[in-house]
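step=predict obj=[Ribosomal protein bS18]-alanine N-acetyltransferase n=155
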Amino acid sequence: MTTAPSDAVRILPMRWWHIEDILPIEDDAFGADRWSPAMFWNELANRHHYLIAVEPPTGRLVGYAGLALQPPSEAWVQSIAVRRDSRRSGVGRALLTELLRVAQDAGARSVLLEVAVDNAPAQRLYAAYGFEPLGIRRGYYQSSNTDALVMERHG
């Protein structure tokens, strides 16, 4: 268990029983491109590293994030989402910080992610953590036909 730098949230491992609580956050953040419950089940079954952020002392779930390790030296941020009323409070930063720690501990020399080209706030967050644009995946988000910007961080 990790405490976020701001002490505003606690970062915990995601378990299957959290899926129901993250679905409204997923729906609000990603709309038509949201993941289904089965997709989250699959991520957990494949032992990808997923986290939740909860507010103490209430335990209210305010965000989640996932990382897929690709040994020997690569990791992919699968998703980061924060409740609308908890955005811009450090929750996303706390989740990303923990994902990067996990990647580093696993020996990843490169961390990659895809982010919607129209999601400037997320792109700024990733850039602040050293992610740089690598390329574009045209129509990556199929439901909306939105392009994805691929970003990479070394080290």
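step=describe
The chain has four helices and eight strands.
step=end
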